[in-house]
Design goal:
GO molecular function: catalytic activity, acting on RNA; pseudouridine synthase activity; RNA binding
InterPro entries: PsdUridine_synth_cat_dom_sf, PsdUridine_synth_RluA-like_CS, PsdUridine_synth_RsuA/RluA, RluA_PseudoU_synthase
Radius of gyration: 18 Å
Distance between the termini: 40 Å
Pfam families: PseudoU_synth_2
Largest sheet: 10 strands, mixed
Organism: Kosakonia radicincitans
Order of helices and strands: EEHEEHEEEEEEHEE
Protein name: tRNA pseudouridine32 synthase / 23S rRNA pseudouridine746 synthase
């Protein structure tokens, strides 16, 4: 049974911020609410790739961020650079660090979430935790602060600001792992991040790719890119 993607992305009026560029690669800050790649539906033409290829002809994406996720992405300007960077990602020598707001107060100060992930055709585009048929997935978390956000009605929304490090790169990994932890990412419509009273008012998915460590394929320079979370 084939799954049909009926999602139509609303217009994204935020610009892509170029943080670094040379003849080999481009480092950008992706806005929330922009697809990484254009969809099959012609109404989903706008994307990171669609915009950048107008400026950097021949550029290709090395990795993606979910539609609602903002933050750091590295983009290759030719096929050779793409292959070299993809190899770093596949060998897991690239470190990705995310900032997130989770619903509720996470009990442990830090920990590891190890839970296998599988596609869920019946609930597309959602993924599921499945110990038997899923692909192994590991994420590390560290709590930065626990606080209460005052809502318009005066109620307090308990939140945890965390740092997330995915050790594997499964689809929706951080979002479903946080749900599995019992603390969905605030604003996450697929994995329970709008269910807590007050959470439905979240303006976006509160997940930001805040650090990216990789080696430049030509200069062998270690890139320690950082971009602070906007929330």
């Amino acid at each position: 049974m084939s799954t049909i993607d009926t999602f139509i992305a609303p217009p994204c009026h935020d610009n892509i911020e170029t943080l670094y560029q040379d003849e080999h690669l481009v480092l950008i800050n992706k806005p929330s609410g922009l697809l990484s790649l254009s969809g099959k539906n012609p109404q989903n033409l706008d994307s990171v790739h669609y915009r950048l290829v107008q400026i950097f002809p021949g550029c290709t994406l090395v990795h993606r961020l979910d539609f609602g996720t903002s933050g750091l992405m590295v983009v290759a300007r030719n096929k050779a650079i793409n292959a070299a960077l993809c190899q770093q990602f596949s060998q897991r020598t690239v470190t990705k660090v995310y900032s997130a707001l989770l619903c509720g107060h996470v009990h442990d100060d830090e920990g590891v979430i190890a839970a296998a992930i599988v596609k869920d055709p019946a609930c597309f585009p959602r993924m599921s935790i499945c110990a038997t048929g899923g692909k192994p997935a590991r994420s590390r978390f560290r709590v930065i602060e626990r606080f209460y956000q005052t809502q318009e009605d005066g109620n307090l929304l308990p939140l945890s600001r965390v740092e997330l490090i995915p050790e594997t790169g499964r689809t929706h990994q951080l979002r479903i792992h946080c749900q599995h932890l019992g603390h969905p990412i605030l604003g996450c419509d697929l994995y329970g991040g709008r269910l807590m009273p007050g959470a439905e008012r979240a303006s976006r998915l509160m997940l930001h790719a805040s650090a990216l460590h990789f080696v430049h394929p030509i200069s062998n320079t270690l890139f320690n890119a950082r971009h602070d979370s906007p929330f």
